[in-house]
Design goal:
alpha+beta, five-stranded antiparallel beta sheet, 3 helices, rod-shaped
Length: about 110
Amino acid sequence: MNRPALVVGAVLLVALAAVTAVGEYVRWNLPRGDEKLTACRAISPGSSLTTVVGVLGQPTMRQAADLAEGAVWLEFATPTVAPGRIRAAVHEPSGKVLALRCSADGPDTWAAPD
């Protein structure tokens, strides 16, 4: 029997098992897009930035908003299965969330009452 070929085959088999195990672990422990979208939709109108960050995590991007002076759009990371990033329009001086958009493909999920 060819001993080097047997050793190489065994090493490849162990490597394949390790890669499969790590891949399944990562897939199992990654947040699902549906869960994050459900959590986003559960945020009530008029919530504070602290509440939104507590549910969605820290924002990943900041962009000026034309809703009010001092307002910015904050974007939150979502898994690739989600239809675009979750965005919140925030009045930075007060920390008040002016609007929440749980899907980049649609209208605002809600806008805060004036």
